[in-house]
Structure to design on (1002 residues):
């Protein structure tokens, strides 16, 4: 027989992140607890609101599953007396189980035959086990931020105030600190926080309906979300006749869903006098802190209407919307104050201020950083041009990126960005526009912070992309030189995201940046101005390069793409992003077309094995003695030349064909020629020949790193 | 409800809940937390239930009286309940009802706000309480003070009196609030707000402040050596306020900021250690009175 099990942990208002953690972990903990006690169940559904974490177990067994157990006794050889009767060891063992020795059986084990006894353990009733299972699940629930309260010792996200635990209609009784579990819950605060007896629950939906109808609580986060969206949709259609639409920031919706036990959408207005604040800043000021939604008219202009989500069912007297309007007005008044104050300043003043802002101890101020960024951005343009990249107007680009590099950190000292840190970039960009900076510079001031988080947009303009890469490599190099390298979960400067940003931006913009070269240049700028003696700079540059490419590899891994192919290419010492990416794609295509990679890896492995630890010099024609080595030599000379041309044209698929065709000759050579000839001249010449063959493969990749799949 | 009536009502309500009603500390401070009634009393095992008005100064929040509710000077109503009672949230909501806020007509929200004061090594978890979007109270379960973990845990309720008054009187600005039946909050405080804003942002003598910081810091050290906890406590407050003034004058670089904060935190730490030691030596007298009462 089976019944449903309900656990509702009632708390004071939980932070949204704790709700999500609790939701996830309580499921695992209860599942583990039930399994460990051999209680079968069909499924566990978890729900949460700001005041409750809920686990609902469907069809849990009323008693434990029967489990066959075997008690192991003495080895067979000592189980019998010489005369044939049971030995003392066997009877003693049987007695300990309360059975007769004749009930023992022989059992085969890897260590030989033993006497033992198999039996089915008497299943216990679940009601007897559940108190401990639920109690332990609650006590084991941990949160990234925990607290204690009163004079108790338990740690939880916020104080626990009630626990409802029901198995069918039966209360599962246990105690945690001052709280005894019961069959009672509490209603929404707005409807009086009334104690309610949970009853008549036969299935999950009954409980969900009970909470909604009796307690004014919508337990399913998904349903709260849908209710918000439906109500907004309704307002857009009926109240606004589709002339306005809400800016539905997804993150904001998710957050609001977790701030209410039941949502109600309200609309309000703010005075027109704030509309002159730049739109993007205004939208953020509306969203930030108060979690309101901005509203746009059909032309995309911001309107004086906003949306707020109430935690409750209705705004009985209109007091709620009125209060919120007052608050928004004051917030905008604040934004306006900062905006007006900032307008009294200029980029020149902010630049001066940057001299007083430490970027990182030992390695200077943000002003120093801005100066380095000017140099790095010019260097990147130069490097790209040298690698054959053609910019539309490179003179202008040099000029714009220099300016952008110089100004890009200024907004960090503006009042508005200090007050609304998530407006970084946007503020600089808006102010640059107002102060008449070139469009490219304006865009770059925003774009250089991109990407701000995983899956964020990337810079699209050249000025933005180059400034962004400069800023990121400068930070990575600086922090590495100062000795603060990310480890494990510690990455306070978000260097991993920055490294990933460099890779993604370069790929998007088709910038064939030599990462090692860039790292060396960026590190070099620090050495000019800061005392970093006692630092193995070459080693640091290698570490930085590896760190950045590790993000490239990580991104592939995340997309479940082959990392061995990447390793093969990187292992041959290539540092230019686009080359690596094109080689990667070509090699993947080659493999996907069904070609056997051993045709590339085997000859390479044979070559590298045989020459390990040897020294090399030129191949000399006069020592080429046998037919197959002469053929190999001739193929090598012609293909080497051909391959270099093809690679410089980045035709990597053809390059693979050339190498693949070459493998045949390498194999013939190894099959027919004895490398270790008695004649030292012949032997050494063959080793030199093999070394050159190996180097030719390595022009593409170290194919030995490829894994047979 | 007039501004002064809000104070009377809260005092009465919390007195009814067993709090002693104290008066403000006669020193500049950023918040009621700095008052010894909270700063020191939250330490150690002794129970403590107290409520008081605390005039609070935040020089950088000055807006020359132009912002409807951001000012460099305002009044907090501070309640400290140690240990935090099981029904502390209900007690708090009861106090709002006492002020005439009907809970079924308003959206009272508990918005996550984990509070930290690095200058005094204090940290707590709790919320900003919003009434219809307006932050009216800071509600914190103290976890740490002066770097010391706290047991039992105190609940600290800090009411923003002006914001509550705006809400109750349906006013859009501090200045329009009715203090009593004839005078407004603006009549009483607007001039001083303007002058202090100007002083904090433009006039305060930076060199004098820097000098005072050093003198006060030194004074703290010589006072604490003599085991004078309460005088030492006041010098921590003085240092903290001077730092806030320097900050308003934009006279603190990022690097110096860390330095100043570390200095004040060290003072707070040795202050708390000395207080804990003295209470222990005294055998925690309030623990005994609690048992008998």
């Amino acid at each position: 027989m089976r019944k449903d099990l309900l656990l509702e942990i009632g708390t004071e208002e939980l932070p949204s992140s704790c709700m999500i953690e609790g939701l996830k972990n309580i499921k695992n903990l209860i599942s583990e607890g039930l399994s460990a006690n051999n209680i079968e169940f069909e499924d566990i559904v978890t729900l949460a609101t700001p005041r409750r974490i809920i686990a609902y177990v469907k069809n849990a067994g009323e008693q434990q599953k029967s489990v066959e157990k075997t008690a192991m006794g003495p080895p067979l050889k000592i189980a019998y007396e010489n005369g044939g009767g049971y030995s003392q060891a066997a009877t003693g063992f049987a007695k300990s189980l309360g059975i007769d020795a004749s009930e023992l059986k022989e059992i085969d084990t890897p260590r030989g035959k033993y006497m033992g006894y198999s039996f089915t353990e008497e299943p216990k009733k679940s009601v007897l086990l559940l108190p401990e299972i639920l109690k332990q699940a609650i006590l084991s629930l941990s949160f990234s931020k925990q607290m204690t309260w009163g004079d108790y010792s338990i740690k939880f996200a916020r104080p626990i105030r009630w626990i409802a635990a029901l198995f069918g209609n039966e209360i599962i009784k246990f105690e945690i600190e001052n709280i005894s579990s019961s069959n009672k819950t509490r209603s929404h605060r707005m409807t009086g926080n009334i104690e309610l007896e949970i009853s008549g629950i036969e299935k999950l939906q009954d409980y969900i309906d009970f909470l909604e109808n009796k307690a004014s609580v919508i337990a399913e986060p998904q349903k709260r979300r849908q209710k918000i969206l439906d109500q907004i949709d309704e307002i857009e259609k009926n109240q606004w006749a589709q002339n306005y639409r809400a800016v539905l920031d997804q993150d904001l919706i998710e957050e609001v869903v977790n701030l209410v036990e039941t949502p109600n959408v309200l609309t309000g207005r703010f005075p027109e006098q704030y509309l002159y604040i730049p739109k993007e800043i205004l939208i953020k000021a509306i969203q930030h802190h108060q979690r309101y939604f901005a509203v746009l008219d059909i032309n995309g202009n911001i309107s004086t209407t906003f949306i707020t989500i109430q935690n409750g069912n209705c705004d009985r007297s209109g007091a709620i919307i009125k209060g919120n309007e007052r608050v928004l007005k004051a917030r905008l008044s604040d934004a306006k104050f900062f905006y007006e104050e900032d307008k009294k300043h200029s980029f020149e003043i902010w630049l001066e201020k940057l001299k007083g802002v430490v970027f990182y101890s030992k390695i200077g101020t943000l002003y120093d950083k801005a100066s380095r960024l000017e140099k790095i951005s010019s260097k990147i343009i130069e490097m790209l041009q040298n690698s054959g990249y053609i910019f539309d107007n490179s003179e202008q680009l040099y000029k714009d990126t220099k300016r952008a590099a110089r100004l890009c950190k200024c907004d960090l000292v503006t009042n508005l960005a200090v007050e609304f840190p998530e407006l970084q970039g946007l503020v600089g960009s808006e102010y640059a526009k107002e102060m008449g900076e070139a469009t490219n510079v304006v865009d770059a001031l925003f774009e250089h912070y991109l990407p701000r988080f995983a899956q964020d947009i990337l810079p699209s303009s050249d000025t933005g992309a180059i400034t962004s890469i400069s800023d990121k490599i400068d930070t990575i190099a600086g922090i590495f030189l100062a000795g603060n390298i990310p480890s494990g979960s510690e990455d306070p400067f978000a260097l991993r995201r920055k490294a990933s940003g460099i890779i993604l931006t370069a790929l998007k913009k088709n910038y064939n940046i030599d990462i090692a070269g860039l790292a060396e240049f960026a590190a070099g700028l620090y050495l000019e101005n800061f005392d970093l003696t006692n630092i193995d700079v070459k080693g640091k540059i290698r570490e930085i390069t590896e760190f950045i490419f590790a993000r490239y590899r990580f991104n592939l891994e995340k997309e479940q793409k082959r990392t061995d192919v990447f390793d093969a290419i990187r292992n041959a010492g290539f540092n230019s992003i686009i080359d690596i990416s094109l080689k990667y794609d070509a090699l993947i295509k080659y493999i996907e077309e069904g070609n056997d990679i051993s045709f590339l890896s085997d000859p390479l492995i044979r070559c590298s094995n045989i020459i390990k630890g040897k020294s090399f010099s030129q191949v000399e024609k006069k020592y080429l003695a046998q037919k197959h080595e002469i053929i190999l030599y001739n193929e090598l000379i012609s293909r080497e030349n051909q391959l270099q041309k093809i690679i410089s044209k980045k035709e990597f698929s053809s390059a693979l064909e050339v190498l693949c065709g070459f493998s045949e000759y390498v194999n013939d050579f190894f099959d027919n020629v004895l490398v270790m000839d008695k004649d030292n001249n012949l032997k050494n010449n063959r080793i030199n020949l093999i070394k050159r063959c190996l180097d030719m493969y390595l022009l593409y990749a170290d194919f030995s790193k490829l894994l047979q799949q | 409800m007039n501004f002064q009536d809000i104070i009377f009502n809260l005092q009465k309500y919390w007195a009814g809940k067993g709090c002693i009603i104290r008066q403000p500390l006669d020193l500049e401070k950023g918040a009621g937390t700095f008052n010894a009634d909270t700063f020191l009393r939250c330490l150690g095992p002794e129970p403590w239930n107290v409520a008081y008005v605390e005039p609070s100064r935040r020089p950088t929040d000055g807006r020359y009286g132009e912002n409807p509710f951001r000012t460099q000077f305002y009044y907090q109503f501070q309640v400290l309940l140690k240990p935090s009672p099981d029904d502390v949230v209900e007690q708090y909501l009861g106090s709002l009802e006492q002020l005439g806020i009907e809970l079924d007509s308003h959206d009272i929200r508990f918005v996550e706000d984990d509070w930290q004061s690095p200058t005094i090594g204090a940290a707590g978890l709790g919320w900003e309480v919003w009434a219809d979007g307006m932050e009216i109270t800071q509600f914190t379960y103290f976890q740490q003070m002066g770097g010391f973990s706290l047991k039992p845990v105190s609940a600290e309720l800090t009411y923003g009196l002006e914001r509550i008054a705006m809400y109750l009187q349906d006013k859009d600005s501090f200045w329009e609030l009715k203090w009593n039946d004839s005078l407004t909050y603006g009549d009483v405080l607007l001039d001083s707000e303007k002058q202090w804003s100007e002083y904090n942002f433009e006039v305060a003598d930076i060199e004098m402040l820097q000098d005072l910081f050093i003198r006060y810091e030194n004074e703290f050290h010589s006072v604490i050596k003599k085991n004078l906890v309460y005088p030492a406590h006041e010098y921590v407050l003085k240092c903290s306020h001077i730092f806030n003034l320097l900050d308003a004058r934009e006279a603190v670089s990022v690097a110096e900021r860390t330095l100043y904060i570390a200095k004040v935190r060290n003072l707070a730490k040795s202050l708390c250690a000395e207080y804990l030691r003295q209470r222990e030596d005294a055998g925690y007298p309030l623990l005994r009175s609690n048992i008998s009462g």
Remarks:
- The two ends of chain B are 35 Å apart (CA to CA).
